[in-house]
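Sequence in, structure out. Go.
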Amino acid sequence: MKILLTAAGSYGDIAPYTGLGARLREAGHTVALATDDSYTQLVRAAGLEFRALPADPRREADGADGGKRDLLRRAAAFVRALGPGVAEAAAQGTDLLLLSATTAPLGRHVAEAMDIPSVDLHLQPNAPTGDFPPVVAGTRSLGRWGNRAAGRLSLRVVDRLYADGVRELRAQLGLPYAAPRAVRRLRGRHSRPVLHGVSPALVPRPADWGPGLELVGNWWPYTAPDAVLPPLLEDFLASGPPPVFVGFGSMAAAGRDDGAAERLTANVVGALRRAGVRGVVQSGWAGLNGPEGGGDVLTVGEVPHALLFPRTAAVVHHAGAGTTAAGLRAGVPAVPVPVAADQPFWAARLAAVGAAPGPVPVPFRELAADGTGAAAERLADAIGRAVRDPSYREAAAAVARRMAAEDGAGEVLKVVGGGGW
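Output:
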């Protein structure tokens, strides 16, 4: 079967589908992954065909003034460029479309026009439930009725964001106008599953979800069987006790403030030293850059979390879905520093399972803004607790054992192999 995976966004929105695609390829399918061309090498390294999508959210963010209206305008432009790209990628030969949460609102219309089946594969539990509020709406529960109502409202917000892009795409594909609710009802009648690459060990399946909504376990970024860490990093790991990892992924610090990255770095390095631990600092979009020649702190670029995290004492991160899961998989405690979107949700889940000190020790914006050292002191306290209190590592290890028994990619294989298309 010719399978096309489509995903758009930052590294964490793309990388999990490389491992999933590799498993599908190993099962005998021909697999392509369509995404922004900055991830070409990432896709091809997993043995997948690369197909280009025209929208890169990082480019869309360049020059943004930070205002809500400007952000919405840029998001709408991103969506309008994305739709034709998904259609072009699918037209190159596709028997089955597998859609991320970002591409699904557009890909469903491509599947309808081309008369090919599609399955939604999401990285967040974003279907409405009374168990918790929408994952992008903070962590304060509104009660069961309020949580469900907020979840339905969040779907309507997504509909509005995609409305112009969907209308233009359907016209391009020769399809008549269709209201979002009508599309959703039609999809429900087809009874196709929506699979979520989320571990039930971290988020129990909501009791009020209907059939077909499943938490199947994580999809992991592809790591080559012969992959190794860079020699400089290997030497650093061997030269002393396990370090604390610090990285904020695709979260940018600077914005319009040229000194933000420097303050963020100073606070991170200061926190590590006050906590009395060694550190591996990942530069990422935040531009972290530890001291040159600093024997206790090493700065690295992109490295496989699957290889590094098991050798750390703790991970300090932005609480993105993928990094959160990778730390738990390694059985190490976390210090979450959430920034936006779904990150406060994952930070709260880490605390709920006992793998992280709570509440959040210091907001990311304070780490990037504070020049007094107070933010570093608070972060140092959280790092010290995570490293020295064994209960956090024990809780993370318990979750890791449950995750090891899951096979998220295998569950997708079952759905693909079950057919019925």
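Check: Residues 231-404 form a domain with the Rossmann fold fold (CATH 3.40.50.2000). Residues 63-67 have pLDDT under 50 and may be disordered.
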